[in-house]
Amino acid sequence: MGRRVYAILGDPVSHSLSPAIHNAAFRAAGRKARYEARAVSASECGTTLRRLALRGGGGNVTVPHKERALPFLDRRTEAVAATGACNTFWAEDGAVWGDNTDVAGFQTVWREATAGRAGPLDVLVLGAGGAARAVVAALLGDRRTGRIGLWNRTPERARAVVRHFGSPCAVALADWRSSGADALVNATSAGMNGGPAPVDLRLLAQPPGAVLDLVYGRESTALVRQAKGMGVAATDGRQMLLRQAEASYERWFGEPPPQGVMRCALG
Ligand code: ATR
Asked: What does each of the 267 residues of the chain score in pLDDT, given as a tens digit?
């Protein structure tokens, strides 16, 4: 077989670090494969995904197509079923599979950020797209999680996510300011490309114990900068990018990527 092609499908994708980290892992493992960034429209996403997978490759799906990818899958993992979103695809025995490795990726990041902390941990989650669904699914799988408050710019979408999970632990918030959370997770895309943070942390009734921003950029995000300025422990989305990428690679090849290579490629 020729070189297998993997790609990140989304719009925009030019800022994505996925090609750099996956190509570094492919090279280090000696795989005959390459990973590309492809900007695709909603109507192109499904056909591109299936073509790549059925030719022996695969890839990732990102903003804004993670939910739209679902009808193009033949099989889905539990994480896709739980979140209604797909970020990883490949084919097995002629069937196109989808997984959502954002769930496992966030679980790892969350465990690292809260190591040694007993529950219950109350969490304020900003956003109501595929990333927010992955965060809520991961948090509901952690016995230490107390109350999950979900806030979104468009409130109806936050209420829809809460209905989707149907857990008494997760509630939609009309106002993020009154939340006294142990941790704040930004699962919106606000802050991308050096843009402003989704919220002003100084307006919170109580500063959170930790801030996990799923957004990353060349520089640290406005939210992470503000958190650190207030003495709050904060990480940007690079860690999450790394963990979900490791999990995707493992889905494609049945083994983890060579250790340390992806982290090194992140710079
Ligand atoms: P993904 O699947 O990656 O989560 P998405 O479904 O497009 O992507 O969701 C993006 C999220 O970021 C949404 O919650 C969106 O809010 P709306 O539902 O109101 O659109 C949120 N978002 C994007 N830009 C934002 C901004 N400037 N401020 C606050 N929230 C923002």
From this structure: 689 999 999 999 998 999 999 999 999 999 999 999 999 999 999 999 999 999 999 999 998 899 999 999 999 999 999 999 999 999 999 999 999 999 999 999 999 999 999 989 999 999 998 899 999 999 999 999 999 999 999 999 999 999 999 999 999 999 999 878 999 999 999 998 899 999 999 999 999 999 999 999 888 999 999 999 999 999 999 999 999 999 999 999 999 999 999 999 998
**Domain residue spans of the chain:** 4-99+241-266, 103-236
Mutate to test the pocket of ligand 1, among 8, 126, 188, 241 (most ligand atoms within 8 A of CB): 188
Nearest residue to 55 (alpha-carbon basis) of 16, 9, 6: 6
Which residue in the list 4, 22, 65, 66 is annotated as catalytic?
A: 66
The verdict on whether 32 is a catalytic residue reads no
What architecture is domain 103-236?
A: 3-Layer(aba) Sandwich (3.40)
CA 197 to ligand 1 centroid distance, Å: 12
**pTM tops 0.90:** yes
Q: Which residues line ligand 1 (CB under 6 A)?
A: 63-64, 66, 127-132, 152-154, 157, 188-190, 198
Spacing, Cα 186 to ligand 1 middle (Å) = 10
Per residue in 68-100, is it b (16+ CB within 10 Å) or e — as a string? bbbebbeebbebbebbbbbbbbbbeeeebbbbb
Compute the distance from residue 244 Cα to the ligand 1 centre, in Å: 19
Regarding the domain delimited by 4-99+241-266, which CATH topology (the fold level of the hierarchy) does it fall under? Rossmann fold (3.40.50)
Same fold, 4-99+241-266 and 103-236: yes
Pocket test for ligand 1, best of 189, 193, 199 (most atoms within 8 A of CB): 189
Q: How far is CA 203 from CA 200, 207, 222, 255, in A?
A: 6, 9, 15, 45
